[in-house]
Amino acid sequence: MSGIRASFGIERSGFRLDVDLSLPGQGVTALFGHSGSGKTTLLRAIAGLERAPGGYFALGDEVWQDERRGLFVPTHLRPLGYVFQEASLFPHLSVRGNLDYGQKRIAPAARRIALDQAVQLLGIGHLLERPPATLSGGERQRVGIARALLTSPQLLLLDEPLAALDGKRKQEILPYLERLHDELDIPMLYVSHAADEVARLADHLVLLDSGRALACGPLGELLPRLDLPLAQSDDAGVVLQAQVCGHDERYQLLALSLPNTPLTLRLPHAALPLNQGLRVKVQARDVSLSLEPPGPSSIINRLPVRVLELADAGQAAQVLVRLDLAGQPLLARITRYSCDQLGLQPGQMLWAQIKAVALLG
Predict the structure, then answer these.
(1) Cα–Cα distance between 243 and 238 in angstroms, integer?
(2) Number of helices and strands (H, E) in the chain?
(3) Rounded to an integer, what is the distance from CA 62 to the centroid of its chain?
(4) Containing H/E element for 101?
(5) Of all helices (H) and strands (E), which one includes residue 7?
(6) Whole-number Å distance between alpha carbons of 6 and 157
């Protein structure tokens, strides 16, 4: 499948959605922004639940909306799955009955996902005969996602599917969303205002604000950009793709290699299979800088970096520093005093001391 094209202008009282996006036709694209930024309105327009005058939407070669030609495919004829904040299961049907309802929407010859496959992917085999009223919030949402998958969608839309869940239930369901990402060849548009979900799941990012797209691109390219509000947030940081390259059994330290460099990161963790690909997040507040190679320290990740750019951190006392770590991006949030004491400027070589590395997933 080639890419996704979405162009919509929707006017409401005090709000206008005005976007023109070209998105990848694979992986997870996160629609990210604060409440009221237009995320759900955009998703509803893609689903055909909001009809935008002059709107256009195409999934690969299939055009679902082109108002200039008078073309509008109604929602029920679009091959998509839609997962809402609430699973909205039919209370009078068992879990199996809810799944059967989703599958029956699709002619047998057009079914691309089998019931057993959806059940296995979402880990709900033990729930099949139970009524929805007996399920936890996380279980209901997993059933709702499985029901959406059983419509054999060419596009899966997820509108803040974890927003109604507490922290424990979110952690319960995130691994299943990762499995969908890894094992299914279905593009997903994932609405969220939670940076941790986006860092863990997304490949591509659309940053929305007041109905407009501030930026659109690969997650790894947008997170380090100092001109975007992401870098101003308290949990600003970067997501790095890494690979398991070793494990120190005595100290229980996992060694991770970074792409195209001999440099490695280490973090406390049990052994994982060699060469397994992983995502890790390094937050800007966990990176300190030094002019000299650090001596003995409790910080185990101390790596050479080059200054690329400096910017205000949204507070008079702090500065953001964008760094190059052997071709990988890194952010540091330091005091303005430290910036002046170190004499920081673009091109300067330094040592980064990374106090914490978070394994995502």
Answers:
(1) 16
(2) 8, 21
(3) 25
(4) helix 95-104
(5) strand 4-12
(6) 14
Contact criterion met (CB below 8 Å) for 23 and 208 = no
Burial class (CB in 10 A: 0-12, 13-18, 19+), 274: exposed
- Judge whether 243 and 260 are in contact, CB under 8 Å: no
| pLDDT score of 104 | 83
Residue showing tokens 């330290």: 253
What's the sign of the alpha-carbon dihedral 220, 224, 228, 231?
positive
pLDDT digits (tens, 9 = 90+) for 266-317: 999 999 999 999 999 999 999 999 999 888 889 999 999 999 999 998 788 9
Are 350 and 312 contacting, i.e. CB atoms less than 8 angstroms apart? no
At 316 the pLDDT is 85
Contact in structure between 244 and 254 (CB atoms under 8 Å): yes
CB 78 within 8 A of CB 36: no
66-72: long-range pairs with CB below 8 Å, 24+: 72/48
Q: Which residues contact 52 (CB under 8 A, 6 or more apart)?
A: 8, 9, 10, 17, 45, 65, 67
Task: Report the C-alpha gap between 84 and 100 in whole angstroms.
Answer: 19
* Residues of the chain below pLDDT 50: none
According to DSSP, residue 164 is labeled T
Angle at 317 between CA 312 and CA 321, to 5 degrees: 40
Name residues whose C-beta falls within 8 Å of residue 212's C-beta, 6 or more positions apart in sequence. 18, 19, 38
What three-state secondary structure class fits 162?
A: coil
3-state secondary structure labels for all residues of 239-267: EEEEEEEEEECCCCEEEEECCCCCCEEEE
**Euclidean distance between CA atoms 222 and 248, whole angstroms:** 33
**Minimal CA–CA distance to 211: which of 19, 59, 13?**
19
Residue with tokens 């380090």: 224
